[in-house]
Every structure is written in structure tokens, then in C-alpha cells.
UniProtKB/TrEMBL annotation:
<dbReference type="InterPro" id="IPR005828">
    <property type="entry name" value="MFS_sugar_transport-like"/>
</dbReference>
<dbReference type="InterPro" id="IPR036259">
    <property type="entry name" value="MFS_trans_sf"/>
</dbReference>
<keyword id="KW-0472">Membrane</keyword>
<feature type="transmembrane region" description="Helical">
    <location>
        <begin position="146"/>
        <end position="166"/>
    </location>
</feature>
<protein>
    <recommendedName>
        <fullName>General substrate transporter</fullName>
    </recommendedName>
</protein>
<keyword id="KW-0812">Transmembrane</keyword>
<keyword id="KW-1133">Transmembrane helix</keyword>
<feature type="transmembrane region" description="Helical">
    <location>
        <begin position="49"/>
        <end position="73"/>
    </location>
</feature>
<dbReference type="GO" id="GO:0016020">
    <property type="term" value="C:membrane"/>
</dbReference>
<feature type="transmembrane region" description="Helical">
    <location>
        <begin position="117"/>
        <end position="134"/>
    </location>
</feature>
<dbReference type="Pfam" id="PF00083">
    <property type="entry name" value="Sugar_tr"/>
</dbReference>
<dbReference type="InterPro" id="IPR050360">
    <property type="entry name" value="MFS_Sugar_Transporters"/>
</dbReference>
<feature type="transmembrane region" description="Helical">
    <location>
        <begin position="79"/>
        <end position="105"/>
    </location>
</feature>
<dbReference type="GO" id="GO:0005351">
    <property type="term" value="F:carbohydrate:proton symporter activity"/>
</dbReference>
């Protein structure tokens, strides 16, 4: 649990922000949030989990920015004592800690899955490099105003999730391609595999309706 105490400054806040979650977030709480992926991903759906997770991260970061600004400008001790970083990672673990890999593997066709995963991990490494080496410089020069950049970025992420993330719940892996290419999509595994997947989909649909 993180408290932005009265003796904290923006550098200390950033150090807490940059640290690995396991260093300051309760392992039990982080585990409980991540467990949602296992027990509720097929009941709630991937898209809803991503929307709740990203929207929660955005709200938490906006509040985080406001509290940091109030403390930096007016020395507001109540704002400094806000517990915001913990809530950010609570929302993060709802979807992004597990579904980032699972959802990517799920939607990529077999023929480009390896390349797609490579691109995903490359983007993650670039983001980690940016977070480790660029953020301290920007925060030192801009102070709390730098948080505006991340609020905008999270807004962009939420927009992408809202418009482009499809729901794949109860959809056989062989049939996911039809969401992108239509019913005539060529599915790896041949006609037999496609027909079997279609039968399974109809069975799941009937069970869900009943």
C-alpha cells in the first residue's frame, strides 16, 4: 500500500510509480485481481474486462495527477496522503497483466502468430525502456504536468479498446478469423476442422440461450 506522505515529493512519487508492483503492492491483492482472468474471463468476456481495466486506470491516473498537482502547488496534505497508485495497479491487473498475452495469441491466425507475438514483446520492451530512462528526465523537468501525457495516452488506449477490441468469448479458436475476414475466412486446419468448430459454436450458442 502506498501513501504519498507529507514528506514525499514528486521524485519519490515517481520512484514508487516506476518500481515493480511486487515491491509495494500487496501480493495477495495483486493475485486476487489477476485471478479474475482465470475465473471470469469466459463469463464476463475479454472486451468488458479490457474496458473496465483501461477505464479504471484512466480514472486512477487522473485522480493521481490532480492529487500530485494539489500537493506540488498548494502543499495540500490531504491530497498527498491519497492512495492512488495501488488503485491503478488493481485496475491494471484486472485485464492487462494476463490477457495482454492471452488475447493476442487468441486473435492472431496461426500463420502470423509468431511474428505478431514478436511485435508485441518488442513494443513492451520499448515501453519499458521509455519508462525507465525517459520518464525520470521528463518528470524532473515538467513535474506533475508530465502526468497529463499519460492521461492522454490512457485515453487513446481506451478509445482503441472501445472501437477495435472484439469479443471472442465462447468462440472456438478456429472460428475467430471470421470476425476479421467474414464467414469465408480460410481457417487453418482445413474444412473438417472448420466444420467441427462451427458445430461446437452452435452447441455453445444453444446452451447459452437455454
Amino acid at each position: 500500500m502506498v501513501f504519498f506522505g507529507t514528506d514525499s515529493d514528486l521524485d519519490r512519487i515517481y520512484q514508487l510509480r516506476s518500481a515493480e508492483p511486487d515491491q509495494w503492492l500487496s501480493p495477495d491483492l495483486e493475485h486476487d485481481c489477476g485471478a479474475d482472468n482465470v475465473f471470469f474471463v469466459d463469463k464476463i468476456g475479454r472486451r468488458k474486462l479490457f474496458l473496465v481495466s483501461t477505464a479504471g486506470m484512466l480514472v486512477a491516473f487522473v485522480v493521481w495527477m490532480i492529487c500530485s498537482a494539489r500537493y506540488a502547488i498548494a502543499g495540500n496534505h490531504n491530497a498527498a496522503n491519497a492512495v492512488i497508485a495501488m488503485m491503478y495497479y488493481v485496475f491494471y491487473n484486472i485485464a492487462w497483466s494476463g490477457l495482454l498475452v492471452g488475447y493476442t495469441v487468441e486473435i492472431l491466425p496461426y500463420s502470423i502468430r509468431a511474428k505478431g507475438m514478436t511485435v508485441m514483446w518488442l513494443c513492451i520492451d520499448v515501453a519499458l525502456f521509455f519508462n525507465q530512462y525517459i520518464n525520470p528526465i521528463a518528470l524532473e523537468n515538467l513535474g506533475w504536468k508530465y502526468y497529463i501525457f499519460y492521461c492522454v495516452w490512457l485515453g487513446v488506449e481506451l478509445t482503441v479498446v472501445w472501437f477495435f477490441y472484439i469479443e471472442t468469448r465462447n468462440t472456438p479458436l478456429e472460428e475467430i478469423a471470421m470476425y476479421f475476414e467474414g464467414e469465408s475466412a480460410i481457417v487453418v486446419g482445413g474444412v473438417a476442422g472448420t466444420e467441427k468448430a462451427r458445430e461446437l459454436k452452435n452447441t455453445l450458442h444453444i446452451e447459452e440461450v437455454s
